[in-house]
Write a structure and sequence with these properties.
Layout lengths: L2 H12 L2 H5 L3 H12 L2 E5 L2 H11 L7 E5 L4 H9 L3 E5 L10 H14 L5 E5 L8 H11 L3 E4 L7 E2 L2 E2 L6 E5 L12 E5 L2 H11 L22 H11 L2 H18 L6 E3 L13 E5 L1 H4 L3 H10 L5 E2 L14 E3 L3 H8 E4 L7 H14 L2 H5 L20 H5 L5 H4 L8 H8 L3 E5 L4 H11 L5 E6 L2 H14 L5 E5 L5 H11 L3 E4 L6 H6 L1 H21 L4 E5 L10 H16 L5 E6 L2 E2 L6 H10 L4 E3 L5 E2 L1 E2 L1 H14 L5 E4 L5 E2 H11 L10 E3 L18 E4 L5 E5 L5 H16 L3 H11 L7 H8 L12
Parallel strand pairs: 2-3, 2-4, 3-13, 4-5, 5-8, 15-16, 15-18, 16-17, 18-19, 19-20, 20-25, 21-24, 22-27
Antiparallel strand pairs: 1-9, 6-7, 8-9, 10-11, 11-14, 12-14, 23-26, 25-29, 28-29
Helix pairs in contact: 3-9, 4-5, 4-8, 6-7, 18-26, 19-26, 21-23, 23-24, 23-28, 25-27, 28-29
Length: about 775
């Protein structure tokens, strides 16, 4: 048992979990029954649970049991405990789990021989569920029962169903290295209560009823102790936290290695929640710069433990003569797969030490010659004359900067959605809002209503729309989303059927200085607009959100996340509420591109906050297209995100623009690193490690599946937020924000300013 697990057991005793629970097996089993919705019996190990599970399924000496070859030996040893023999099946690349195609091949072959397997064991490898729908259909077709080995996947889900509850029997583990631990132990679960009771009987030496110790069947000493069960009862309470910690580590690694070719995180299937029990990566030696084994040696030299993925069972001497089906996928995964440190107790400094060690092992020359970039950082070209330098700065960037193919519209759903309808765009005078108005006009709406508080830009937009789209009625309406009365007038006058909500305060440093204004506009303004849309029976409502809403570190980000929650809570009536989350827009107001352009035109220097800072980028047309597409194909309550490829380093963007202007970076045009500003993150992400995703009808857009939301609790919290805002209680405001979005980490500067009870504007110095 590791130090983290020992400390946890000690805390269990210190906090009287055991005495509170009244340490007994029944309370532990009842807690698991409640969580999983099945019956359970707590046992001494996961292997013991597999042994008893196979026995209740009727496995006898001489039987054959199908088993994935990519698993731990504890999965298949119990087969031989019962005198049966395993036959090993290959993996699929999409999940690394049992390949349904190989299973079908094996079942068909055995059916042709007249001897089907007695059972099929399905392992949810490293915390990710196998494709259970396909596997269940095949096993039902051939009438073969399933034992579901979820020892590595407690807390994972498959299409909303908990791992371990989809087979005839399921197995869990509480070994010292699992998501939650009793320092040892396991559990057999099943919807068949009779089987669970039989396993319980066998686990207690199969003692017959009566005063004397009499035994008519073979039993085992497999029952979990009361002490460990008491610890387990307490651990169930922190299961979700442990999953969050494990997934956070895996995704931190993934993001930190995003720019390294030849290293990729284990696939994250879209059919459920992967717990990332272990952080597993594949190493492509030809691109990464060293082999998996060389990387492990380098990590070992840095005192960092790593391991290969499981060695396939058919390669083990103990099982070398067993039957096997399928190709060489499992062998390939074994040759290239590495498990990095991922304990829930792993500190952030230790995680960063792992990241630095992996990055230092990568061959730098491989990074420079990688085929990930579709255009070189410094393209071969003749430097322009001094007269043409400013003209070059005026250019825009496209696919060569994005390093991916720009999004293309599927126009038919948009045509059906927008034609002949009145469309309201809030924040219409802004970069994204005005682009939306222009794109919407192409689909022949009945009218476009542009709503904004900025008079002059809205006036300019009105002139442009009437000139370029004279056949589309355009109504320029002045007002703010914070004014409920004005919103009522707007909806009564124009009767919009579709709303695109782009109005927001979005500049991170500015909102760190004015948190109350950010809350009043981004949260309360959204609430008022959502309420008006629902009251007036708008059919479609699309919120423009941000990647900064994911694990936010800024007021802007956390208010955007709350706006997403407001939409989810509103999804009860006839209005379809959808959110769209994307990264930085290249030519939008406040983007680094126009800032860099002005700095270069002025002779420099070009200012970059941090050399490691990177962002996802999209073009302005892409932003508008994503919003429109998501509104047409998104389902109620979903958050749609664009596959934005790999993030771009801000310093590389600056260097590219300097070169395109005819200068040499750092020599002719200095780049000055000013340091991160309050609320900024080095890396952004489009989805949280707690958000499941699903495919959509557009191959470049995926939808994040919403988690359960307590609507009444959210409304109470918003009301508390309103009180803190009205009383200018900034410290209290931060407390409520953190309660509403637990993953929010406010900036140090904001916390310190709030502690000083400054009110609406903190007056933090700008950098």
């Amino acid at each position: 048992m590791g130090g983290g697990e020992q400390a946890f057991v000690a805390r269990a005793f210190e906090t009287n979990w055991i005495s509170t629970v009244g340490p007994n097996l029944e309370s532990f089993e009842q807690a698991m029954d409640s969580r999983l919705g099945v019956h359970s019996v707590a046992l001494s190990s996961g292997t013991a649970a597999i042994h008893l599970g196979l026995r209740v399924l009727g496995v006898q000496p001489g039987d054959e049991v199908f088993c994935p070859t990519l698993t731990f030996v504890g999965t298949c040893n119990p087969i031989r405990y019962l005198g049966a023999e395993p036959a090993f099946l290959d993996s699929e690349r999409d999940t690394w789990n049992l390949d349904p195609n190989v299973l079908e091949e094996a079942l068909r072959a055995r059916a042709g021989e007249g001897k089907l397997p007695r059972a099929v064991i399905v392992v949810h490898l490293y915390g990710q569920c196998a494709d259970m729908d396909s596997i269940r259909e095949l096993c039902a077709r051939y009438d073969v029962p399933i034992l579901e080995d979820a020892a590595q996947a407690l807390g994972a889900t498959y299409k909303g169903r908990p791992a371990g509850t989809m087979g005839d029997v399921g197995v869990l583990s509480f070994n010292g290295n699992k998501i939650i631990t009793t320092a040892g132990g396991g559990m057999l679960v099943s919807a068949n209560q009779e089987w669970v009771e039989k396993a319980r009987f066998w686990s207690q030496q199969a003692r017959d009823p009566g005063l004397a110790y009499a035994h008519s069947e073979l039993g085992y000493n497999y029952r979990l102790s009361n002490v460990l069960a008491g610890i387990g009862r307490g651990q169930v309470e922190v299961l979700d936290l442990r999953i969050e910690q494990r997934r956070g580590i895996a995704f931190l690694y993934r993001d930190a290695f995003a720019d390294l070719p030849g290293i990729g995180l284990m696939p994250q299937s879209r059919h459920g929640l992967h717990t990332n029990w272990l952080s597993c990566f594949l190493i492509d030696e030809s691109r990464f710069g060293c082999s998996r084994d060389e990387l492990m040696r380098k990590l070992d030299a840095a005192a960092i433990e790593s391991r290969p993925v499981w060695k396939p069972m058919h390669l083990q001497p103990l099982y070398a003569n067993c039957a096997r089906f399928g190709g060489l996928v499992a062998e390939d995964l074994f040759q290239k797969g590495i498990c990095l440190p991922s304990s829930s107790s792993l500190s952030l400094p230790d995680q960063l030490r792992v990241i630095n060690a992996v990055r230092s092992a990568a061959d730098a020359s491989e990074l420079q010659t990688s085929d990930l970039a579709t255009a070189p950082l410094y393209p071969s070209r003749t430097a322009p004359s001094s007269d043409s330098k400013v003209d070059c700065i005026a250019g825009t960037f496209g696919g060569d900067l994005l390093r991916r193919t720009p999004l293309s519209l599927d126009e038919e759903p948009l045509r059906q959605s927008l034609r002949g309808r009145v469309v309201l765009v809030t924040g219409a005078a802004g970069s994204i809002g005005s682009e939306l108005c222009r794109q919407i006009a192409h689909f022949h709406p009945a009218a476009i209503v542009g709503f904004d508080i900025a008079e002059s830009p809205l006036f300019e937009l009105e002139l442009q729309m009437r000139k370029d789209y004279p056949e589309i009625p355009f109504y320029a309406e002045i007002g703010t989303i914070q004014n409920s009365k004005r919103l009522q007038e707007l909806f009564l006058c124009h009767r919009p059927q579709i709303v695109y909500h782009a109005a927001a305060y979005k500049h991170v440093p500015m909102m760190e200085n004015h948190p109350i204004e950010a809350v009043e506009n981004n949260v309360f303004g959204t609430c008022r607009l959502v309420s008006a849309a629902a009251e007036h029976q708008v059919t479609d409502f699309v919120l423009i959100s941000s990647d900064k809403a994911v694990r936010p570190t800024s007021v802007m980000g956390v208010t955007k996340r709350i706006a997403e929650l407001v939409l989810l809570a509103a999804q009860r009536g006839s209005t379809k509420f959808v959110s769209v989350r994307f990264g930085n827009v290249l030519e939008s107001t406040g983007s680094v591109v126009p800032i860099f352009r002005r700095q270069i035109a002025g002779g420099g220097p070009v200012t970059v906050t941090d050399p490691a800072m990177e962002r996802f980028f999209m073009t302005l047309p892409e932003a508008g297209e994503l919003v429109l597409q998501a509104g047409a194909i998104g389902k109620p309550g979903q958050i749609c995100v664009l596959d934005m490829g790999r993030p771009v380093k801000i310093v590389e963007l600056a260097e590219r623009m300097i070169v395109d202007a005819g200068y040499t970076p750092h020599r002719d045009m200095p780049i000055v690193f000013t340091g991160s500003r309050p609320g900024e993150k080095l890396f952004e992400e489009l989805s949280s490690f707690l958000e499941d995703s699903a495919s959509t009808s557009h191959d470049r857009i995926r939808a994040l599946v919403p988690r359960q939301l307590d609507r009444e609790q959210l409304m109470i919290q918003i009301e508390r937020l309103r009180v803190k805002s009205e009383t200018t209680d900034t410290a209290g405001l931060l407390d409520v924000l953190k309660e509403m979005v637990p993953e929010y980490s406010p900036s140090k500067e904001l916390v310190e300013a709030a502690a000083g009870e400054l009110t609406r504007g903190f007056g933090l110095p700008s950098r």
